[in-house]
Design brief:
Elements: H1 13-17, H2 34-38, E1 41-43, H3 49-61, E2 70-77, H4 82-101, E3 108-115, H5 117-126, E4 132-133, E5 136-143, H6 148-153, E6 162-170, E7 174-176, E8 193-195, E9 204-207, E10 215-224, H7 235-239, E11 246-247, H8 248-255, H9 261-275, H10 281-292, H11 294-308, E12 314-315, E13 318-319, E14 323-324
Parallel strand pairs: 7-8, 11-14
Antiparallel strand pairs: 1-2, 2-10, 3-5, 3-6, 4-5, 5-9, 6-10, 8-9, 12-13
Helix pairs in contact: 9-10
């Protein structure tokens, strides 16, 4: 699996998991987060180093709507209770065990999990519950660098605030799980977890048997995201907006008027890799934006709008690239 855009935490693993010395007195002033304080979560203040790092990770992982996200609060798992300390120690033991079985590397990552505020609190109190989806039964988390699917699953509370867990996840050795799979556990003892795409994962799949030993909820991230309203509860609906879309072949034809042959060759290669299922759609679009630049893409889209009645490509003050890529 390609190296993901890792969270650049300036804290090492031990530091992330160490007991927090942060004061929780500020929590008492926020009725909104009273439940978090009651289950041992401690507010991370803005002047603390980890606050800035997590904020940067959140906004970066939301992609092109990151500038519309408002971070409301970060709460850290203090694991101060007897049960909390036991859960932390169990996670560390399993991390060591997986590392010993996998050549010294437990493949420890950050993963995001979105839900309602009540669900988040229940997970911290009682652990994860089994869930099923289109690629096997287990707990689905989003990678640190592509978290919008978890953000969509984060339900707004009565104050319009969404909540996600930022977790430490033991992936171990991963296997690719195909859409429609009914898999319940690793296919063999050679694997520990599942992913949806070996080159650019958008899902980490932690099987039911491991969901409360291989996932450690480290933070609750509370935020508002007006742009997510109306997108539904899954990323597929967000990737297919109701606004008119542009055929990718049409886009390539128009871009060829502006770009040198060398760049068009790269774009063609990216598109061929996508059609051969070697890369996912998010990676295709990110590579295109990086190679071409948003200003050129905006100009092309506007020009096509005038010629073939493409409209509303700007939605909620953000560019929504909605290329049809068959």
């Amino acid at each position: 699996m390609d190296r993901e855009s890792q969270v650049s935490m300036e804290h090492d693993y031990d530091g992330m998991m160490a007991d927090s010395d942060c004061e929780s007195s500020s929590d008492s002033g926020f009725r909104q987060f009273k439940e978090f304080s009651e289950i041992g979560m401690v507010k991370v203040e803005e002047d603390q180093g980890e606050h800035g790092v997590i904020k940067k990770t959140l906004l970066g992982g939301m992609g092109f709507i990151g500038n519309e996200i408002n971070l409301v609060a970060i709460h850290k798992n203090s694991h101060s209770s007897v049960t909390g300390q036991a859960k932390l120690e169990a996670f560390q033991i399993y991390c060591q065990a997986v590392a010993a079985r996998r050549g010294g590397d437990a493949n420890l990552r950050y993963g995001w999990y979105g839900g309602s505020r009540d669900e988040i609190c229940d997970i911290l109190n009682f652990g994860f519950e089994n869930s099923s989806s289109s690629q096997g039964n287990g707990v689905y988390l989003s990678p640190a660098n592509l978290l919008i699917e978890s953000a969509l699953r984060a339900e707004e509370d009565e104050n319009g605030v969404r909540h996600m867990l930022m977790c430490r996840v033991i992936l171990g050795k991963t296997e690719t799980i195909s859409p429609g799979s009914k898999q319940l556990q690793p296919s063999s003892i050679d694997f520990d977890s599942g992913i949806d795409n070996p080159l650019e994962p958008t899902k980490y799949i932690i099987w039911t048997a491991y969901m409360n030993t291989h996932i450690f909820p480290a933070y609750i991230i509370s935020f508002t995201a007006p742009s997510l309203a109306g997108w539904g509860t899954n990323w597929s609906s967000a990737k297919k907006p109701s606004s008119p879309s542009m055929k990718f072949q049409v886009l390539m034809k128009v871009l060829s008027r502006f770009l040198p042959p060398s760049k068009m060759c790269l774009i063609s290669n990216y598109y061929n890799d996508f059609r051969a299922n070697k890369i996912g759609r998010p990676l295709l679009i990110r590579r295109l934006r990086s190679l071409v630049g948003d200003n050129v893409l905006i100009s092309v889209i506007k020009m096509c709008k005038d010629q073939v009645h493409y409209s509303n490509f700007l939605h909620s003050s953000m560019l929504r690239f909605s290329f049809e890529v068959p």
